[in-house]
Request: fold
Amino acid sequence: MNIKVSSGELLKLVSVCASVIPSKAVMVILKDFVFEVEGDQLSVTASDLDFTIRGSMTVISSQDGKFAIPAEPLLVTLRELPEQPIEINFDEEKLVLEIKSSTGFYKTSSNSTDDYPQLPEFHEDNQLDVSSSKLIKALNTCSFATSTDEMKTNMLGINMAIKPDLIEFVATNSHKLVKYTLYGVHESQEHSMILPKKLVSILKAMSGGEQTITIQYSKNQVRFRYLDFEITCKLISLVFPNYNSVIPVNNDKEIIVDRQSMLHALRRLVVYGNKTTFQTNVNIADDELSMDTLDVEFSNEAKETIPCQYQGERLELCYNAKYLIESMSNLSSEEVKFLVSQPGKAALLLPKEDEVGEQILMIVMPVMKWRPYDE
Reply:
């Protein structure tokens, strides 16, 4: 069996599929790509049993067929080759693969595709179309707030709640929460599912401008069809926390600040603060926002003052600077606003103005306020 293909185009295809090749595979053949040719179409499949990616491209082939090819040597070979036509030859009897380029050839053994596990069949119950840029932005905005605690399995992913004309994406680890609402979705049915966090990096790797992603979902699985790729993954089959019940609704004090100014100030402050608690005092009065931090053990301290927009009584707040930095880094607006009710209560962090068709909300949890100086 002989395949002629562009080395560069094949590299783009297998690089995306490689994102699900496991570093420690439970089966040797899961370290391989499965190549399947029908006519002039080559499909490449990779799986770690939880995620399966299948991509396709046009090739010149002598016949239809199917074979496995080790992922690592193929990826290294293609990355180091300049763009050129290459040939892949497969000997079905000897299970031997040979790659020919303009400067050399590379031979390796192949595993039998009969050993490749039977992947679960996907029976889609529902389907909707979403803008690829909006979906990737939603998942990327939320992903930093997912839990890393294996004991909190239902918080390890991003909850995607489909409602009439909108989708809510939510992630939380109990200390921080992000809610991204995407409007203008043409879907009348309601459904909720928890997407694995790994899905974010896979979709970002395939990003190819403004396209439509078709989402098909059932009770236990979800499939994304995007460009020439198809990604199927298992859902986290648990109940996500009731996030709406913890979002404060009576935060009547509004502080508007330049996002980059506050973000850079926090990054300067955090290196002088306690590396365990990251506690930082935030005091607001007379259109000024001052932040100070202290690490008693190493006699470190720092203070920053930046302008803000605020009318009201003086506010003395305290937050985890690391969480503030993570939250503000995942916003893109020039200005952000904090909505606060009183010290010691959760605050809301939002863009001053949301982009059309979306709404982003983050919860900033307070920490116990300390005073670095006697007053």
In short: Residues 248-364 form a domain with the DNA Polymerase III; Chain A, domain 2 fold (CATH 3.10.150.10). The chain is about 15% helix and 40% strand.
